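Dear V.,

Thank you for sending over the compound details. I've combined the ligand you provided, flavin-adenine dinucleotide, with the protein sequence from our construct and run the structure prediction for the complex. I'm sharing the raw inputs here so there's no ambiguity about protonation or stereochemistry in the SMILES, which I know was a concern on your side last time.
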Amino acid sequence: MTANRIVIVGGGAGGLALASKLGRKLGLSGEAEICLVDKSPVHIWKPKLHEVAVGVIDQSVEGLLYRDHGLKNGYRFLRGELAGCDPQNKSITLSSVLNDDGEELIGQREIEYDYLVLAIGGISNSFNTPGAEEHCIFLDNLESANRFHQKLLDDLLLLDETNEKLSIGIVGAGATGVELAAELHHVLESVKDFGYLNIDKSHLEIHLIEAAQKILPALPDKVSARAQTVLDHIGVRLHIGVQVKEVVKEGFVTQDGVLIASGLKVWAAGVKGPDALARLTELPISKRNQVEVDACMRVKGQEHIYAIGDCAMLIQDSGRPVPPRAQAASQMAETLYKNLLNRLKGKAEKPFVYQDYGSLVSLSRFSAVGNLMGNLRSRSLFIEGYLARMMYMSLYQRHLASLYGWFSAAIYSLAQRLLKWQRPKLKLH
Ligand SMILES: Cc1cc2nc3c(=O)[nH]c(=O)nc-3n(C[C@H](O)[C@H](O)[C@H](O)COP(=O)(O)OP(=O)(O)OC[C@H]3O[C@@H](n4cnc5c(N)ncnc54)[C@H](O)[C@@H]3O)c2cc1C
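Below is the predicted structure of the protein with flavin-adenine dinucleotide bound, written out as structure tokens.
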């Protein structure tokens, strides 16, 4: 095997797992140069972003520093944002890195590759709804989760003094919206224990707005119905079959002209590829801003470029695209890992086949619900409560195992549990 430069852009659920595995297999031994590029220096598994937003987890404790992790796992980390791609010269451009004052820290750079993997994830889709970009927080990255957290802290401070109501509106009752709503209720229940003596859950009003005819529209009816019962029970106000026409400072204006008053506004509906992809004019980009790939995850028309995860559009044999989920990103990373090893040895690559193992939704301390897919006639099994919570947590365990290996991941999880036991349950700063 000759030395090869494999550059992976995006260190999320798919990209970081791939960089870690390739790094350990080829990077540590010097058989290939593995380089991971990300615009952020810290990785938090995206399905945990809503927990960062409400303060249930602390990024300074649970965040993984790419630079340090890369050193131990055989890849080189480069901080930067993808700005361009030149397939002819096999190079990408990273835009300059700025400091907090907006001054240039590192200038624009060109990075050469032999193989390039795009894994820059997706962002929420506002469907060009007027006012959405201006007034809503999109829970797409660590930065926006931290911004939400700061606004929540400001509101808690005000609430404690004024005793008014805190009204939060969330557009999109998919997993993100539902999990965030439940987690917010849990936090408001708990803040008294942290010195916010005048606040309790009666001060919180959460509006969850969904255009489809049920919450969790992508999941089986039984899962949606059970989640709805739990949300009803804790007092989340559900607006089902309601479309948002416009977002204004005071809240959401519906198609019928009704204003759903909300101070803090979150947009968690739809997924599309990041804007950076629209600038890659040499590559085939879909209407949803994703890179079109073939069955082996190769970008169509490109021999040396692959794309995985939410930023890739891979149409399955069924005619449906692979869904934007962490389990899909991690399965793609696993298949591409094997394919790249094969390719470097001159062997054939295998097509990616998505295995839907079901979906699990955490309803904070109140419950967890989901469905597990069986092989038998594609029927799914409904689960809830403790079993569903254990299965939900096992997804994160699998992600950790891909980053650290199973043994180290188990030690890491144990250490985090001990830390959690000793540290405050909420981050309120
Ligand atoms: C709150 C929330 C809850 C979710 N819950 C679940 C769940 O329970 N189960 C499930 O299966 N899925 C869930 N998802 C979806 C899941 O998180 C994504 O499908 C998954 O993370 C996609 O993985 P990825 O590797 O494609 O991208 P990501 O994990 O999003 O990673 C993308 C990476 O690329 C980096 N990046 C972005 N743009 C650039 C650029 N221009 N240059 C350089 N780097 C860049 C980002 O910093 C990030 O590190 C949830 C999503 C959210 C937001």
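A first observation: The longest helix spans residues 142-162.

Warm regards,
I. M.
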